[in-house]
């Protein structure tokens, strides 16, 4: 036991030296956050970096998808709590600085995995190869989350990095002590051992060149034959997007098609109003209770009856649907609308009218 | 002579046949579209049902009180049978789909059995709870596959009629993406309440009568005053080109509809202002935003300032979301430390220049200023005891929401997690009732087919 421990210590020491050398040689701010404060609901590269860095130290174990959702929010708050920051879920300069100090972020690796739609992880102290999930595609259905190669599921139990794991019982977090930015040189080695811990000799050099040196990048790319096979049958999962609570992206797409088919060429508010009518119908007890039910209801929309629903909607129609879902309703809570120039049914004229937008009259 | 007559007759016959053919063709197309629409409807509804089945099963996992659990299980049962009926409307006789049917049947049976029994006397056993968990995770897998197929159908504009025609022409199902997708779903299935809008999200249940009621005693404004109010609200008091309309009888209140042309960039801004009281109901600017120059955080600050400037007092940001280059912010009124979700506004900020491009205040105008419930007979600790024990509680607030009976109620709002899912649960602070249990949406992956 003791011998083992000593053996490991020497290995860590060797790795430490390697790391220290590298740390001295490499410019430290190769990849870093932008200046913005990251807030819940945000999307983009900063969020990817945030998730990856939090995962690196075992604070985040959900998918790295570039959307600051609930999972990320709880991880951020936990981090803030354990390191004595304001627990507000806002990632400001101080937290970013601490994260940059105590974690590695291999931008190239993470973004490539995202592009390739892999289920991957970014834990520190594990070989990148092991964290690279299988590519989606081929015949086998997309891998479940459980298939990740022994990625630590629970940040509490995961202890890939003895120096990094914050342990509340031992008082202040040991090594990457956040409140010690004034002595970066002493800190650098303290946190680095995690990197080579499993396989020190080969690990350290592998992780390092990826960070800066251009010519070493091919090293990190998968062997060509793996990449060469284009999988055209299956979906690649890319970065995720925000959707309004209660609606899937597919719901939005169907609604955008309906809006485009019905009201393209109309003023923007007219398009929002058409989308709002669909939503008002979903809410109404006398209509079906889901988007496709309302839209494909026989004789409900002319664009459906004549097949225009299948046109590819433009961005404006999509935007109109999002606005309507977020509460906008220029129609004034209308359930019907019609074009007075082409309306054939006399019944529709008997409805109490609310307003006219563009070519359409909206009514109760 | 005879020849001319013959030629004329033939010509008429040819034209007639042509016209008849044309009509037949039209008719066939109309029927095809009709049939296609029916299939599309059944298909998309099936996928919607599977989505909600998963959500509802998830919510039952986070529920604790028996009086919530029974209706929820009944809902699961109802959704299952709807999904089964949708499935039955798809041209599935041609392909194997038995396992998914069986899976739906299993869920249906489980939920029915447990919803009709008296859960007060016989609560769910450990084993049944585990079973529920399994069903939940399985339905998640199926939901995910289904969404993928749906995304593909939408993106590639796949037609069910094509499948049928292809099958009519060939002997068996050939290489077809829809069928392939469904086979995967079916394999997955072999291995093993309706859309609930949040208390603030999507103010789709706005009540024009409430608004009418709130403004009925206020002073009526004329068109000029409306334009002035609009200019102040927008903080762009230049010489506007404004078109004004008045709303019709279909609404309980009367309002001016303004179309304002922004002199800076020529975009239209639309807004409605109530005739009585001159309250701005909503505003929208029609502009495609191409870039993100400011962060969501900065945008939220701008949204807050906008509210302050327009006389909204003590509003707190309760939700923010970025959609590409737009930030959408939900604010709720804060009454001391209570989030009044029923007095909510939505602000949209363009992330390129920080302009307010959307505002919606239906709920705020309808509810703000009403007497709010204040009876807090349950402490946070007592409310916690009403929660499902397997929920890990992450956040607590006091909140006023509108419940299913459209009453405003004071609640303890808990955010908690079970595994990787986040739930929001409202416990009535007066009587401990579980008013609402919601599973919060996760970010949705984008499926890319190439």
UniProtKB/TrEMBL annotation, chain A:
Keywords: Cell wall biogenesis/degradation, Germination, Hydrolase, Signal, Sporulation. Residues 135-145 have a biased composition (Gly residues). Pfam families: Hydrolase_2, PG_binding_1. The keyword Signal applies. It comes from the Bacteria. Residues 203-217, 224-233 have a biased composition (Acidic residues). This is Spore cortex-lytic enzyme. The lineage of its organism: Bacteria, Bacillati, Bacillota, Bacilli, Bacillales.
From TrEMBL, chain B:
GO terms for biological process: spore germination. InterPro entries: YpeB_N (IPR048402), YpeB_PepSY1-2 (IPR014239). Residues 27-162 form the Sporulation protein YpeB N-terminal domain. Residues 180-371 form the Sporulation protein YpeB PepSY1 and PepSY2 domain. Pfam families: YPEB_N, YPEB_PepSY1-2. NCBIfam families: spore_YpeB (TIGR02889). This is Germination protein YpeB. It comes from Alteribacter lacisalsi.
């Amino acid at each position: 036991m003791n011998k083992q421990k000593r053996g490991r210590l020497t290995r860590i020491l060797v790795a430490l030296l390697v790391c220290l050398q590298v740390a001295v040689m490499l410019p430290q701010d190769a990849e870093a956050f932008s200046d913005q404060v990251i807030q819940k609901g945000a999307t983009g590269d900063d969020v990817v970096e945030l998730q990856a860095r939090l995962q690196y130290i075992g604070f985040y174990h959900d998918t790295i998808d570039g959307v600051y959702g609930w999972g990320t929010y709880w991880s951020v708050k936990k981090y803030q709590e354990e390191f004595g920051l304001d627990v507000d879920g806002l990632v400001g300069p101080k937290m970013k600085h601490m994260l940059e100090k105590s974690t590695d972020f291999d931008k190239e690796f993470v973004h490539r995995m995202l592009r390739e739609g892999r289920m991957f992880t970014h834990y520190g102290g594990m070989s990148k190869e092991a964290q690279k999930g299988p590519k989606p595609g081929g015949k086998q259905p997309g891998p479940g989350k459980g298939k990740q190669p022994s990625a630590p599921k629970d940040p509490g139990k995961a202890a890939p990095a003895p120096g990094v794991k914050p342990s509340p019982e031992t008082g202040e977090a040991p090594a990457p002590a956040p409140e010690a930015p004034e002595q970066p040189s002493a800190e650098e080695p303290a946190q680095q051992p995690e990197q080579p811990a499993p396989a020190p000799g080969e690990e350290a050099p592998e992780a390092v060149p990826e960070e800066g040196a251009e010519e070493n990048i091919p090293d990190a790319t998968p062997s060509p034959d793996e990449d060469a096979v284009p999988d055209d049958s299956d979906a690649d999962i890319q970065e995720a997007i925000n959707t309004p609570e209660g609606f899937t992206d597919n719901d939005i797409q169907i609604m955008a098609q309906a809006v485009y088919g019905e009201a393209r060429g109309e003023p923007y508010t007219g398009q929002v109003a058409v989308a709002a009518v669909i939503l008002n119908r979903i809410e109404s007890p006398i209509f079906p209770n889901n988007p496709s039910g309302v839209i494909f209801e026989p004789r409900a929309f002319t664009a459906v009856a004549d097949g225009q629903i299948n046109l590819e909607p433009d961005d404006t129609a999509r935007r109109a649907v999002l606005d309507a879902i977020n509460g906008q309703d220029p129609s004034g809570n209308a359930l019907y609308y019609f074009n007075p120039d082409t309306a054939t049914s006399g019944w529709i004229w008997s409805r109490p009218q609310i307003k006219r937008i563009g070519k359409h009259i909206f009514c109760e | 002579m005879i020849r001319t007559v013959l030629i004329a007759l033939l010509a008429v016959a040819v034209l007639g046949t042509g016209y008849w053919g044309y009509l037949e063709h039209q008719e066939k197309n109309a029927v095809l579209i009709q049939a296609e629409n029916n299939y599309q409807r059944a298909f998309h509804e099936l996928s919607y049902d599977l989505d909600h089945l998963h959500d509802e099963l998830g919510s039952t996992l986070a529920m604790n009180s028996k009086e919530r659990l029974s209706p929820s299980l009944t809902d699961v049962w109802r959704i299952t049978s709807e999904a089964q009926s949708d499935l039955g409307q798809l041209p599935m006789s041609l392909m194997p789909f038995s396992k998914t049917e069986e899976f739906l049947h299993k869920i249906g049976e489980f939920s029915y059995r447990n919803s009709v029994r008296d859960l007060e006397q016989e609560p769910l056993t450990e084993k049944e709870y585990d079973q529920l968990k399994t069903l939940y995770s399985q339905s998640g897998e199926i939901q995910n596959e289904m969404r993928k197929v749906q995304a593909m159908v939408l993106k590639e504009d796949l037609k069910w009629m094509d499948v049928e025609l292809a099958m009519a022409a060939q002997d068996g199902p050939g290489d077809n993406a829809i069928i392939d997708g469904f086979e995967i779903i079916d394999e997955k299935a072999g291995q093993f309440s309706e859309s609930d809008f949040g208390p603030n999200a999507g103010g789709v249940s706005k009540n024009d009568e409430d608004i009418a009621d709130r403004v009925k005693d206020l002073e009526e404004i004329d068109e000029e005053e409306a334009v002035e109010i609009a200019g102040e609200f927008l903080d762009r008091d230049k010489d506007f080109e404004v078109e004004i309309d008045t709303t019709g009888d279909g609404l309980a209140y009367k309002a001016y509809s303004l179309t304002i042309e922004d002199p800076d960039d020529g975009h239209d801004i639309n807004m409605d202002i109530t005739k009585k009281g001159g309250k701005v109901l909503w505003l929208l600017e029609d502009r495609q935003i191409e870039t993100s120059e400011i962060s969501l955080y900065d945008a939220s600050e701008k949204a807050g300032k906008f509210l302050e400037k327009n006389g909204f007092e003590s509003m707190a940001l309760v939700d923010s979301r970025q959609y590409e280059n737009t930030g959408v912010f939900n604010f709720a009124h804060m009454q001391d430390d209570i989030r009044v979700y029923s007095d909510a506004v939505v602000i949209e900020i363009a992330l390129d220049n920080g302009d307010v491009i959307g505002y919606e205040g239906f709920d705020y105008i309808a509810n703000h200023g009403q007497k709010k419930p204040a009876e807090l007979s349950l402490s946070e600790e007592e409310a916690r005891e009403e929660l499902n024990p397997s929920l890990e509680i992450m956040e607590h607030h006091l909140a006023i929401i509108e419940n299913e009976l459209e009453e405003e109620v004071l609640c303890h709002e808990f955010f908690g997690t079970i595994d990787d899912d986040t739930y929001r649960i409202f416990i009535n602070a007066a009587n401990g009732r579980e008013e609402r249990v919601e599973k919060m949406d996760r970010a949705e992956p984008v499926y890319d087919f190439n």
